[in-house]
Amino acid sequence: RLILTYEGYERFAKSVTVVADTTEIVEAELVPLTGDLSIITTPANSDVFINDEYKGKSPLTLQYLEVGDYFIKITQTGYQDEVTKVSVEWNQLNTVEKTLKSLPGSVAFYSVPNGAEVLIDNKSRGVTKSAGLVLDIPAGSHKISMKKKGYITETTEIDVKAGETTDLELSLSKLPDGVSEDPNMGWISLTGTPKESQIVLQGTEYTSPLKYHELRKGSYRFKVSHDGFKSKNISFDIHAQKHAEYKFLLNPIDQKRARKLALMFPGRGHFYAEKQSKGFLFMALSTASIYGAYKS
């Protein structure tokens, strides 16, 4: 009995009678081992390629494929390509099920004014700028909001198409004085004499008058100054959704007193006149002079 085997092929077996002094010729055709492959996709009607060869639309069943490994590529307009490796086994049906992911759409967001925070389905995704804020968004309907401090939040719906590029611009209206979307905010207005005084509040400098400056409820302190006047540090409280007003009055620096203090002790007159850098300089020079005289 003659038996032939080869990897990937069915075994060949045949009985052979051999006669002395003769040659027996045996013709054998090995049959490849095969299996079947079924491909199901969501969505259906996707293009199916096996080892880069187009095979048809899904759902698709391929029979009598030689045993081995294959690369499957599934494509459809508006969806990301799906590529996977599968194995076909002898006399077996291998079923492959794949759900394609939608291609995102590209959206460029603009706002008037710039600097608005963009929220997509209530999730912050960035801030607009003059060149736009470009984002990839899953296809479908989405809620878009843009908000900026001191402005009314604008909200709209957008339908994003897979693989398409579009843009969206929203104009934000300024909130009236004394109005905030944050219930914890209040306002302070600072006016006084002299005009155009410098106000330092939370490390930022402003020029008076300062009107309806928005702050979170709590206790604060500001410094107000002006050349030729004694500066003041003033504390105040901010209450939620309330407007506080404060009028300051700076007293002029007494130049005669400043000169008198300067004569009494170098630098002291400058400190009184709120020229600290010069005060330190004259104090240092005076100290150095006294020390030099003492050493000599």
Task: List its salient traits.
296 residues; four-stranded antiparallel sheet; 12% helix; 3 helices; 23 strands; mainly beta
Can you characterise this structure?
It is a single chain. This protein has 296 residues and is mostly beta strands. Helices cover 12% and strands 48% of the residues. It is built from three helices and 23 strands. Strands 5-4-7-8 form a four-stranded antiparallel β-sheet, with no helix packed on it. A four-stranded antiparallel β-sheet has the order 12-11-14-15, with no helix packed on it. Strand 21 and strand 22 form a beta hairpin. It is rod-shaped, with a radius of gyration of 42 Å. The termini are far apart. The C terminus is likely disordered.
DSSP strand tally: 23
The count of helical stretches stands at 3
| DSSP strand content | over 45%
Strands of the largest sheet, in order across it?
A: 5-4-7-8
Overall 3D form: rod-shaped
Low-confidence stretches: 269-273, 290-294
Q: Tell me the structural class.
A: mainly beta
Short description:
By secondary structure, this protein is mostly beta strands.
Q: What's the topology here?
A:
Elements: E1 2-4, E2 12-14, E3 34-42, E4 47-50, E5 53-57, E6 60-66, E7 68-75, E8 82-88, E9 93-99, E10 105-112, E11 117-120, E12 123-127, E13 133-137, E14 140-147, E15 154-160, E16 165-171, E17 185-193, E18 198-201, E19 204-207, E20 210-216, E21 218-225, E22 232-238, E23 243-249, H1 255-264, H2 268-272, H3 276-295
